[in-house]
């Protein structure tokens, strides 16, 4: 019998810094909820909007797998490994912070906002050599499909990280149904709705709702409206 935890969009932490409007699915910065510290190895799911020309100054990370998914606009990146790049809508970026990195992120467009998800997972191996990877996705593969964007395997579709996790983006037409099969026993699933309304094993989720699910082998997804969503299969323990 599957066990679920529902995180409605309105229950997320919120911080409006003027240049940054951020919603936190899990405790972050000044927002702390003892019941919302993490879901398995998923530690951070931030839903950020960055004003034109603004961004995050240089700051450090270590021993964390950091995934950035732009939803609108561009995000320029610079880090202590020597990487300088701009990720755009339809891209996905990952950094394995490992022994330690410093980086900055900013919106390079003065006249356009940038919207993005930033996701942190605890790694299964500590103190690895830091690494960076960025790819452009074929968004057509997401139509009525679970399109893999991340895995533990460098030879698989998408980017890879030091964790037994699989991420997918889906873009379902209203009424479309599809079943998901768990990739690794003991893992859980966190579903986050980007837009629209879906049901997952009968639980209705609306825009920006999150649902954590454990103790399952398959999950049934149905789109009540046209809907886009992110699936994150992640270990519940190391």
UniProtKB/TrEMBL annotation:
Keywords: Iron, Metal-binding. InterPro entries: Pirin (IPR012093), Pirin_N_dom (IPR003829), Quercetinase_C (IPR041602), RmlC-like_jellyroll (IPR014710), RmlC_Cupin_sf (IPR011051). Its cofactor is Fe cation. Coiled coil: none annotated. Residues 149-234 form the Quercetin 2,3-dioxygenase C-terminal cupin domain. Binds 1 Fe cation per subunit. Residues 12-121 form the Pirin N-terminal domain. Signal peptide: none annotated. One of its GO terms (molecular function) is metal ion binding. CDD domains: cupin_Yhhw_N. Fe cation binds at residues 59, 61, 103, 105. Pfam families: Pirin, Pirin_C_2. Belongs to the pirin family. This is Pirin family protein. It comes from Flavobacterium restrictum.
């Amino acid at each position: 019998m599957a066990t679920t935890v529902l995180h409605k969009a309105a229950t997320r932490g919120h911080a409006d810094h003027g240049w940054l409007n951020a919603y936190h699915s899990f405790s972050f910065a000044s927002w702390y909820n003892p019941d919302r510290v993490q879901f398995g190895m998923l530690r951070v799911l931030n839903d950020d909007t960055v004003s034109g020309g603004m961004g995050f100054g240089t700051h450090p990370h270590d021993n964390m797998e950091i995934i950035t998914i732009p939803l609108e606009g561009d995000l320029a990146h610079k880090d202590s490994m020597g990487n300088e790049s701009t990720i755009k809508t339809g891209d996905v970026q990952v950094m394995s912070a490992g022994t330690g990195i410093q980086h900055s992120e900013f919106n390079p467009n003065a006249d356009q906002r940038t919207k993005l998800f930033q996701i942190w997972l605890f790694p299964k191996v500590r103190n690895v050599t830091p690494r960076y990877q960025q790819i452009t996705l074929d968004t057509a593969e997401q139509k009525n499909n679970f399109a893999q964007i991340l895995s533990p395997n460098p030879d698989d579709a998408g980017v890879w990280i030091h964790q037994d996790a699989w991420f997918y983006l889906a873009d379902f037409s209203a009424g479309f149904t599809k079943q998901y099969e768990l990739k690794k026993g003991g893992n859980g699933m966190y579903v986050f709705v980007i837009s629209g309304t879906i049901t997952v094993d009968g639980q209705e989720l609306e825009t920006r709702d999150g649902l954590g699910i454990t103790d399952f082998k398959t999950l049934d997804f149905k789109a009540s409206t046209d809907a886009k969503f992110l699936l994150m299969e992640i270990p519940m323990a190391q």
